[in-house]
Write a structure and sequence with these properties.
By secondary structure, the chain is of the alpha/beta class. It contains 18 helices and 25 strands. The chain binds 2-deoxy-2-amino glucitol-6-phosphate.
Length: 592
Amino acid sequence: MCGIVGYCGKEPAAPIILEGLKCLEYRGYDSAGIASICDGEMLVKKDAGKIDEVERKQGIGCLPGNIAIGHTRWATHGAVTQANAHPHSDCHGRLAVVHNGIIENYQQLRQELIDRGHHFTSETDSEVIPHLIAEKMEGDSYSLEKAVLAVMPRLEGSYAFVTLAIDDPGKIVGARKNNPLVVGSGSHGNYIGSDALAFARHTRKAISLGDNEVVVMTPDKAEFFDAAGNAFSKQPRELDENWANNCKDGYEHFTLKEIMEQPCAIDRAALQDGKKFNSIALDILRAGQVVFTACGTSRYAALVGRYLFSRVGKKFSEVANASEFGYFVDSIDKNTVVIAVSQSGETADVIEGVWAARDVGAKIVSIINRPNSMLEELSHHTIYLKCGPEVGVAATKTFLSQVAVFYLLSFSLVNAFDEAVEHLGDMSGKVAEAIECNNSNLINLAQKLKDKNDFYYLGRGINFSIATEGALKLKEVAYVHAEGMPAGELKHGTLALIEQGTPVVVVCPDDYTYGETLSNAMEAKSRRAYIIGVSDRESDIFDFWVEVPRVDELLYPMVTIVPLQLLAYHMALARGYNPDKPRNLAKSVTVK
Ligand code: AGP
């Protein structure tokens, strides 16, 4: 949540920052701002609104200077206003800070600073940082980096921040604790961002800052310091070429582009190292217990994983909601394998649970999309999804890639990794077919249902997870109340809500759950629900048939989820919403 970018070099900085902020808008889009230094003056422009709006109103991309920092905000402390937008400054406007995270002891720090004569202009927790740094620079004549190092121990909570100051010009200083910060070095200068996506067009050489580390960036170099101020060196890692592509490629929205990329995403997810999978499989088989921890879509993918582990590998596992996982750590030990599933690799709820599990000796396997993440640093094994950046806030291609990885992992449990790769080889064509057959029909269905307020999604076994994920997509992008549940659960309460015309989406491919799921659908139909069947086998019960290709039972999730993503997308458009940037949400949720 919140995106940070910084640049110092030979080029005009603000346009680079603006472009970087647009690449990070998935992290928050309430407000934005840039600070630059030019001719010894600190220039700050910021406002509430999405980046394009702020650019239109304030011209943030036109600020002069070759050194600048910028921010795109997802509000935590303080309303969405111009005053609360970043960058924030000290009393005299001599330094500027952009921050991602939460300073938990900000009230105490703020009061102390007010008592010492400081004036605050925002309601944010972040504003204490520039005031604290300024005190050190003014009172103790510290350099910017020395002041940052002195202030860090005073900050409780989590942060990644970058700062620049007119009293120590020509440099950007960045610091991190439990929030990501990545440094990029290029031939025209140095870059810093919450995600390498912010500068991937300029350089693919990226260095992740570690917790309690500080970077001092000048146009020519980036130097790293530990919390005691000792310099040390870090080697850059080359970013995957795929990671630099951040364009819509002619699609109206990233969400649609990413849905359409799914046939290719399966092929990429299957490019895994069989030896590594076999070694992880051995750990899983030997473990006393296996627990998945994840949030949102990643958790629904983990439900598919749990099913596959049981059905293929005969290994029971449990799926924990990451925000609740920490409360069960009493029963985690060194015989536990924790499988942390996170597209971003930085979801705070996931990270916190993983820390707790590591502390008691559990083995951590992570399944991540974004490179250089904190979750990778905490893991014993990391599997990458390899599907490139997902910019739409609603996860689509990463869900399918997670499911593909679980398919490979479950077959590895029975020493059949190669067989699984072979099966996945046919799936990209099937997923493409699921898209082609349904896209235009779903536009019509969305038009028909766009004014409905409640949807219910049903499925059994492996299809239950697709029901829940389908419902989440509709909530997120179309702002329609939707519930996904095991089909058998409907009659235990929710049936009371079904009335004439209530849309009920029934995920019922022609597997061994088909008959029972249809019986549950019939219970809804008898109350005059409007039944949308997602299946390769037609039924009289369906009022609308979403036909999917016939595939093996264990691969159905890959073809059934796709039309549900498309339905949510077209519902968003039919209701007049931008599916890429749902209200109140951010893609990376780095607060608890
Ligand atoms: C999915 O569409 C959502 N944006 C959200 O539920 C997301 O899956 C969740 O926040 C977890 O994110 P992660 O995979 O990056 O950990």
